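Class prep. Write one:
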Amino acid sequence: MNDLVNRFRTGEQLALARLISVIENEDSRRNEVMAQLYPLMGKTYIVGITGSPGAGKSSLVDRLSVILRKRDETIGIIAVDPSSPFSGGALLGDRIRMQTHALDKGVFIRSMGTRGSLGGLAHTTKDVAKAMDAFGFQWVVIETVGVGQAEIDIMHIADTTVVILTPGAGDSIQTIKAGIMEIADVFAVNKSDLPGADRVATEIETMLDLHCDTTKWRPPVVQVSSVTNMGLEDLLNAIENHRQHLLATGVFQKIRQERIKEETLEIVNYQWQQLVSRQVKIPGRVNELLQEVLNRKIDPYTAANNILAHVAASFKVEGVEGAPQRKIM
C-alpha cells in the first residue's frame, strides 16, 4: 500500500484510480489510505452539480471542464450514477462519459454507483473527493444522480452547490417549493436555447425576492446552454463570486472546520457500528443479550447499554481495525 501511495504522490493517475477503488469498495485498508492522504488535503474547491434527471448535468459539466482546461486548471469529476441492482456498480461508466477529456491528464473522471444510498451521493463519495483533493486537482466537481427530498447530501460536501433547472420540466414553482432549492448557491437554467427559459428564470428570481435573506448570499440565476455554450463563462463567474464571498466573510473557513468535526464524529459512529456488527456475527455476549430481548427477559434499552459496555471492553483489547494512529506533521 505504501508503494501505491508513493506513486499517487508523484501524480500517477493509475495509482489514484486504484486508491479510489480501495476507498469505494470499503477495503480494510481504507482507513490507512485516508490517514496517509490527509496531510495533502484541503486545497481544492468542490462544486456540486445537482438537478432532475434529464436536466443536462453531464453535458454541462463537460462544457465547464473545457473552459477550465483552457484556463490551465485541473479538474477531478465524480459522476454519481444509479447502481446496477445485480453488481452494485454504476450503470453509466467512465468510458461513455465526457469523451472530450479521454486523453487529457488534467481531467480525471470517476463514475460511482449509489449502491443503495438513499441520498443523491454514494456512501463513499466524500472520501473519493478527498482523494482527488489530495492528488492536487484545483477543482473537484460532483454530479449527483438526481434530486429529491433526501438528496441534499451534496450541501455537506460541496463548497458551492449549483442547482440546474430546465424549461418544460413541469411545474417549476412546485419544484422550487420541494425543498431542494434551499441548498442552491447558484441556479443554472440549462437548455436556455429552448422556449420557456426566461419564465423559469423569472420564477426563481421571484421566489428569491420572497424568501431570500437579504443579509446573506443571494443565489444568482444564470441562463446557460451546453449546446450553444451560452452563459457558461457567466456560470463559472457566479461560482467564483460565491467562492470569494465565502472567503471574504470567513464563512468558508468556518464551514470547513465544522465539516471536519462532523466527519470525525461520523467516523467514530461508523467504527462503533462495525465493532458491534463484528460482535453480532460471532457467538458471545452480544447475541446472548439480543436473545434475552427476544425472550422478553430484558428491555431493548437495557440490552443496548449492556451491549455498548461489552463492545467498549472488547474495543480496549482489539482496537479499531485499520485505524493507525498518526500525527499530522
